[in-house]
Design a protein that fits this description.
Strand order of the largest sheet: 3-2-1-11-12-15
Low-confidence stretches: none
Keywords: Hydrolase
Pfam families: Hydrolase_6, Hydrolase_like
GO molecular function: phosphatase activity
Protein name: HAD-superfamily class IIA hydrolase, TIGR01459
Structural class: alpha/beta
InterPro entries: HAD-like_sf (IPR036412), HAD-SF_hydro_IIA (IPR006357), HAD-SF_hydro_IIA_hyp3 (IPR006356), HAD_sf (IPR023214)
């Protein structure tokens, strides 16, 4: 902790499992704040930062334990509102939203016309999903129709899986986006590991990169994103990669971790079983 002043913390798989906080996670944030560290919750959630903050409060993470939540969903909304990049500028206004039931508000305030028919859409906005009720298989016919029309997709959560409370994995929106790419669709991703969201976080922290560390459980998102941003990283083994590591009780086998890192082509600065 003394080596860093700014901490970018993942949410799912690091702070909580979607139902309860991981052991020691709340205490870890309390310790960071007592040491006057800057903390940003950097989440690939498609929901707004304020909605994530409300969810964190239910898990026991008080609002004063971190400075801000920066979400992939907000990153996508900011880009769609600004339209200052060629990809977003070329998108039309008629949007087919893929999200959990009752979350149409995630596309509000962007000047978009929401449509329910692929034939009427200019692009697809993939924000959230509710597995297993919503799934890649369930959306496949829609994706095939969209691909036939060459509709671009904006993915506001690139995670392909997320840790579930039973220790397994659930499908996440990034898996839908990957399936769309396999059909020939063009996808623009927002969130980790894309550089845009790290530029936002570093600007908010106002710290030299050498004094910032990212903590996450996904090698493809948290660790890859940190490496791309030129900052140190901490890999949490108890998240989505738990089943790929050999465990001796609560301890990770170092050799199995190194083998996992080699397969993924990612080298975190540090590795811990859990945050706390």
């Amino acid at each position: 902790m003394p080596r860093y002043d700014g901490f970018l913390l993942d949410q799912w798989g690091v702070l909580h499992d979607g139902i309860r906080p991981y052991p020691g996670a709340v205490a870890a944030l309390e310790m960071l704040r007592r040491a006057s560290k800057r903390v940003i919750i950097l989440s690939n959630s498609g929901r707004r930062g304020a909605e994530n903050a409300a969810q964190l409060a239910k898990f026991g993470f008080a609002r004063d334990l971190y400075d801000e939540v920066v979400s992939a969903g907000d990153d996508a909304r900011d880009a769609l509102a600004a339209r200052d990049e060629p990809f977003h500028r070329a998108l039309g206004r008629r949007c087919l939203l893929l999200a959990r039931e009752g979350e149409a508000h995630l596309a509000q305030g962007l000047g978009l016309d929401l449509v329910d028919d692929v034939a009427l859409a200019d692009f697809i906005l993939l924000m959230t999903m509710d597995p297993p009720r919503q799934s890649v298989a369930g959306w496949m016919s829609l994706l095939e129709a969209a691909s036939a029309r060459r509709l671009p997709m904006v993915c506001a959560n690139p995670d392909m899986h997320r840790a579930s409370p039973d220790g397994g994995l659930q499908e996440a929106p990034g898996l839908v986006a990957r399936a769309y790419e396999q059909l020939g669709g063009i996808v623009r991703y927002h969130g980790k590991p894309e550089s845009r969201i790290y530029r936002t976080c570093l600007a908010k922290l106002g710290l030299d990169r050498s004094r910032v560390v990212a903590i996450g459980d996904s090698l493809a998102h948290d660790i890859a994103g940190a490496q791309g941003a030129g900052i140190d990283s901490v890999f949490i083994g108890g998240g989505i990669h738990r089943g790929e590591i050999v465990w001796d009780g609560a301890s990770m086998d170092p050799a199995s971790c190194l083998a996992l890192f080699a397969r993924a082509g990612r080298s975190p600065t540090y590795a811990l079983p859990l945050l706390g």
